[in-house]
Specification:
Layout (H helix, E strand, L loop, with lengths): L3 H25 L3 H4 L4 E7 L4 E5 L3 H18 L9 E4 L2 H4 L7 E8 L2 E10 L28 E5 L2 E2 L1 H8 L5 H29 L1 H25 L3 E9 L10 E9 L4 E4 L15 H16 L13 E4 L19 H4 L1 H8 L17 E7 L6 E6 L30 H7 L2 E8 L15 E7 L3 E6 L20 E4 L7 E3 L2 E5 L4 E5 L14 H10 L4 H8 L11 H7 L3
Parallel strand pairs: 10-11
Antiparallel strand pairs: 1-2, 1-5, 3-4, 3-6, 4-5, 6-7, 8-9, 9-10, 12-13, 12-16, 14-15, 15-20, 16-19, 17-18, 17-20
Organism: Leucobacter komagatae
GO molecular function: 5-oxoprolinase (ATP-hydrolyzing) activity
Protein name: N-methylhydantoinase B
């Protein structure tokens, strides 16, 4: 029997196994997006496909893994999942991500019984999508690359060369792509072994009972927290810059959130329909991003388990931007990054003391690719950029950290980018005055300048440049993200999401947004404003204009001038 102590030991054993899966993946992956940025989702699941342990990476991946496994079970049947099998699925509408985020998973058997699954999702380099690197303007799923609908990479432990050969002949960078897929396989095999060891040590029945108890406990924690939240219904709207096709047309995301004692309902009815370009979301990702916000409000201090999300209900309209159906394009999944903060915008109306103002609102990714003149080999590198977080009722927003959709991720170090590509980083630092003014200031964004030393392609994945990060309770909005090509020249172009063909000497600046402010800026402690000026987050002009604080050259507050500026 799984008594409380045994259950806790098993829970930590599963968490340790998930972390080992992640370490195994990072040691064996070919792609810096995986081993440097941690663009992955890793989980251990029970026999129903429900996650019981994960290792933090891309937050929306792990819940998407649940959906991918369950669709595969329905498609193939459980009897088709034998010991030693390893599967791959990247059919977007089932796998909950675009085609370059394949889910690899392996069934776990013990005592001739299916007891669970190990899963690993990463971003791979290329699967013959219509454009190298990333697709920004597809209008049909068929343009988005090779699809594998729950296919066996390994059959009872034997490599299935048929599938690997299909991948090899359908990738522009087969070595990297197959290397990353094999790293996923290795990671899953590690998860299978460690879970089987727990089954051997404690018995299958005890392990299964412990998994059920883990999820039951996760559900109880969520329900207890839900009862403490303010109750009501609130609606918010925000926008994605464009769909990649109609560049001058904002795409509306509408969210109505209802909180009761029994459930939280996140209703996306009213969001844009008939979106032509590839920003449509598989419904599994919509459910996952909604789960991320729900967890941040209810059980932020405990590891992810499926039970945490039992009180959450997500409503979508099939065929809308929040629920893609075949053959709708889904490649540019940035809607899933921006939409989480639409939920927060709705909740801010009813519980402003519990949620932050909007962050910079994007992961502001820049991907470069080309032929490296030093090696003659193709290269492809990417990094996500930090943004400013929104101020809260209790403190300032953080300056320059990864967007809330990827709390387990990092950016790609300058040294890695310069070593592996034909890019030089000329500048990297904070963007002063981008955080919205407030009693609690929004965090500032960052700016990174890329100079290309050879003909290259620069792909900018930035989809919140046309709307400002919203604020709360009288705070000021943050400054939005911005991409500038060849600044200060006759060829300067200010843009957002874009696919750029670049020549040697071209310069691209990826400048990220700041968070919205919280509360009246004139209520901010003048000493805090002076500290921000000293640290370079706020300019002296902004201190006077936005905060009514006059800061001298010695970074000391001029109290008389400040009192006059504030009318006090």
């Amino acid at each position: 029997m799984a008594d409380a102590i045994t259950t806790e030991i098993i829970r930590h054993g599963l968490l340790a196994a998930a972390e080992e899966i992640a370490r195994n993946l990072c040691r064996t992956a070919y792609n810096t997006v995986v081993y440097e940025i941690h663009d992955y989702g890793i989980g251990l699941h029970d026999a129903n496909g429900d996650v019981v342990a994960d290792a933090p990476g891309i937050a929306v991946f792990t819940r998407g893994n649940d959906a991918g496994i369950k669709h595969s079970m329905e498609f193939l049947g459980v009897d088709a999942m034998e010991p030693g099998d390893v599967f791959i699925i990247n059919y977007p509408y089932w796998s909950s991500a675009h085609t370059l985020d394949p889910l690899v998973f392996a069934p776990i058997h013990a005592e001739d019984k299916l007891i669970g699954f190990a899963s690993c999702r990463v971003h791979v380099t290329d699967l013959h999508q219509k454009d190298p690197g990333y697709v920004l303007d597809s209008t049909d799923r068929s343009q988005e690359g090779l699809v594998m609908p729950a296919s066996k990479l390994y059959r009872r432990g034997v490599k299935n060369d048929d599938v690997f050969n299909i991948v090899r002949f359908n990738s522009r960078m087969p070595k990297h792509t197959i290397g990353d897929i094999q790293a996923q396989v290795s990671a899953c095999v590690t998860g299978v072994k460690r879970t089987q060891e727990l089954a051997a040590k404690y018995g299958v029945a005890t392990l299964e009972e412990a998994m059920a108890t883990i999820n039951d406990h996760g559900e109880k924690l969520a329900k207890l927290a839900l009862k403490k939240l303010p109750k009501g219904t609130w609606t918010a709207i925000d926008y994605v810059d464009d769909d990649g096709i109609s560049k001058d047309q904002l795409v509306e995301l509408k969210c109505t959130v209802t909180v009761t004692d029994e459930e939280m309902i996140v209703d996306w009815t009213g969001s844009a329909e008939n979106v032509v370009g590839p920003i449509n979301l598989p419904v599994g990702q919509t459910e996952a991003l909604s789960s991320l916000i729900f967890k941040s409000l209810t059980t932020p201090d405990s590891p992810v388990v499926a039970g945490n999300f039992a009180p959450l209900r997500v409503i979508t309209v099939p065929g809308s931007v929040m629920h893609a159906v075949p053959p709708m394009p889904t490649f540019t999944l940035w809607t899933g990054l921006l939409a989480g903060e639409v939920i927060l915008k709705a909740l801010a109306q009813g519980m402003p003391e519990l949620v932050p103002a909007c962050s910079g609102g994007d992961v502001c990714s820049m991907m470069g690719l080309g032929i490296n003149p030093r090696t003659g080999e193709p290269w492809q590198e990417a990094t996500n950029e930090a943004v400013g977080y929104g101020g809260t009722a209790h403190h300032d927003g953080e300056d320059g950290i990864m967007h809330l959709s990827e709390p387990g991720c990092r950016n790609n170090p300058v040294e890695v980018l310069e070593t592996k590509s034909s890019m030089i980083i000329d500048h990297y630092g904070y963007r002063p005055d981008t955080g919205g003014a407030g009693k609690h200031r929004g965090g500032v964004g960052v700016s990174r300048t890329y100079r290309f030393t050879a003909p290259s392609t620069g792909i900018c994945l930035v989809y919140k440049t046309k709307t400002e990060p919203w604020s709360i309770d009288g705070g000021h909005e943050g400054k939005p993200n911005q991409v500038v090509l060849n600044p200060g020249t006759s060829r300067e172009v200010v843009q957002g999401g874009s696919y750029n063909h670049l020549e040697a000497g071209d310069v691209l600046v990826n400048a990220t947004g700041g968070g919205g402010g919280y509360g009246n800026p004139f209520d901010r402690d003048p000493a805090a404003v002076a500290r921000d000026v000293r640290n370079g987050f706020v300019s002296p002009d902004s201190a006077t204009r936005d905060y009514g604080v006059v800061v001298g050259a010695d970074f000391v507050v001029d109290e008389d001038a400040t009192a006059a500026a504030r009318g006090r």
